[in-house]
């Protein structure tokens, strides 16, 4: 009597776990692909809208444009581009070292309970609306800075950025930059904190085992590892400062001038602020002019993010494994 044996059954019913997992993978990958496509389509649609709506302002007669008032578009928008870049760079210079210091304290120096509390405060500060920062900056912070500006003018007036007559209201480009620095501080601190916490423990323990102090360990192990993350946080904060509207609008006057002075009453303003201030009264080609200014801001912000990604990619080869 012979017994026949059959191999394992390779057929599966439609309801087996393998089929379900495969179906879930397809749904997930399709959803992720659709989300990526939506982002690209949205970005392209915004860019196309800005370009199409900007063409009338760039090609029409400027004498009929109540926004330009006979000026060329480039001569009108350049002071606002300068104000946007100048205020954002000042804010970045002020906020970056403070954010890195706070992040290092939370990640490597503060006790666990205090670090958790400070991290919660930083995250909560990031949720404050920009209009609240603007009101605080215009009504409370600016008057507080008036004596400080007078002191700067008296003792450091020989420096061009502190020369001239200091503002009697405190509403200067330096005040706006300080408000922007406070606004971008939470997001920069949060990013730097998370990057510092990802430093391989073996690197830190090796530095300490070789006799390094805590600061030497941070300087030799933590900061080199987190360099690309710190650049990413700084560029993300810079992008936030470039596009900020209400805080700058409430602090600065809409003057289209170019000056590096930080404490004078006459200051340059930013593209988002001038759009917010002039849009309610704009009509015909004036609306297109403001949209064209938005296109310039879009290009500047895109360029900043592109440079940030390039800087980060240069450090991509450095990791905790090497």
Automatic annotation (TrEMBL):
GO molecular function, one term: phosphate transmembrane transporter activity
Transmembrane segments: 26-56, 76-105, 117-139, 173-192, 245-263, 290-312
NCBIfam families hit by this protein: phosphate_pstC (TIGR02138)
Domain ABC transmembrane type-1 stretches: 81-308
GO BP terms, alphabetized: phosphate ion transport
Family named by the database record: Belongs to the binding-protein-dependent transport system permease family. CysTW subfamily.
Organism: Microbacterium foliorum
Record-linked Pfam families: BPD_transp_1
Chief location category: membrane
Gene assigned in the entry: pstC
Protein name per the record: Phosphate transport system permease protein
Ranges of biased composition (kind: Low complexity): 1-17
């Amino acid at each position: 009597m012979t017994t026949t044996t059959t191999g394992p059954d390779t057929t599966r019913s439609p309801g087996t776990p393998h089929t379900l997992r495969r179906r879930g993978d397809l749904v997930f990958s399709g959803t992720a692909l659709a989300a990526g496509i939506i982002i690209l389509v949205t970005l392209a649609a915004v860019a196309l809208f800005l370009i199409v709506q900007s063409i009338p302002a760039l090609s029409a007669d400027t004498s009929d444009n109540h926004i330009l008032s006979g000026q060329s578009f480039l001569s009108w928008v350049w002071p606002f581009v300068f104000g946007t870049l100048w205020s954002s760079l000042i804010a970045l210079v002020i906020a970056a070292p403070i954010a890195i210091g706070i992040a290092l304290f939370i990640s490597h120096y503060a006790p666990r309970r205090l670090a958790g509390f400070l991290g919660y405060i930083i995250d909560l500060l990031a949720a404050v609306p920009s209009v609240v920062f603007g009101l605080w900056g215009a009504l409370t912070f600016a008057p507080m800075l008036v004596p400080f500006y007078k002191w700067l003018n008296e003792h450091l007036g020989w420096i061009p950025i502190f020369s001239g007559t200091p503002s009697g209201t405190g509403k200067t480009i330096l005040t706006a930059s300080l408000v922007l620095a406070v606004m971008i501080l939470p997001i920069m601190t949060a990013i730097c904190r998370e990057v510092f916490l990802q430093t391989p423990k073996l690197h830190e323990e090796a530095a300490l085992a070789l006799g390094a102090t805590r600061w030497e360990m941070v300087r030799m192990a933590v900061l080199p590892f987190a360099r690309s993350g710190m650049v990413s946080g700084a560029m993300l904060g810079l992008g936030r400062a470039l596009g900020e509207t209400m805080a700058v609008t409430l602090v600065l006057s809409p003057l289209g001038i170019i000056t590096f002075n930080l404490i004078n009453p006459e200051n340059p303003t930013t593209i988002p602020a001038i759009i917010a201030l002039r849009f309610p009264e704009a009509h015909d080609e004036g609306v297109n002019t403001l949209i064209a200014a938005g296109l310039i801001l879009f290009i500047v912000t895109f360029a900043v993010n592109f440079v940030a990604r390039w800087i980060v990619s240069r450090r991509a080869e450095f990791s905790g494994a090497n």
